[in-house]
Hints:
This protein is of the alpha/beta class. Helix content is 12%, strand content 26%.
Amino acid sequence: xxxxxxxxxxxxxxxxxxxxxxxxxxxxxxxxxxxxxxxxxxxxxxxxxxxxxxxxxxxxxxxxxxxxxxxxxxxxxxxxxxxxxxxxxxxxxxxxxxxxxxxxxxxxxxxxxxxxxxxxxxxxxxxxxxxxxxxxxxxxxxxxxxxxxxxxxxxxxxxxxxxxxxxxxxxxxxxxxxxxxxxxxxxxxxxxxxxxxxxxxxxxxxxxxxxxxxx
Length: 215
């Protein structure tokens, strides 16, 4: 077993985890490691990597953790299989968060992101590089907002949804749960639960049986 007292454990070990580690430690004060269940160890690109099974239970309970993966289902699985309950919220110093915005636990907000007034960000949400979320929006738990996304005012995004790179969502739109909006899309109408939608304008092309399991 490995001792990791008071470390930040990034749940994930791919390139997104490496990016997250960069802005999680902008002031060089954190000790960081990367971890997943041992079955995914062969996919790890980040170091130091320590499998869930090799971390002392006491350290899981005292260290902070945050997810760094895009797929909502994998986020949920990593969180549910992690024995610790202390989740960090990581906000880059190079982002802008309005004082009235509400940010949940286990959220990551990357450099260049803008979150405007009266917006509510759920738990374990990823807000990626250079994304803009305007006033009065709601982003549901486990969702991922990809780089360069622009979301206008009063948009509601359901639990476990993904908005692809460079997509635009116009004001007052409701995106259901488990929705994948394709890269570069322009969303002008509501999108129902469990849908794959893309295009300009964005249209639904496929229905999911449940959570999104692959991109």
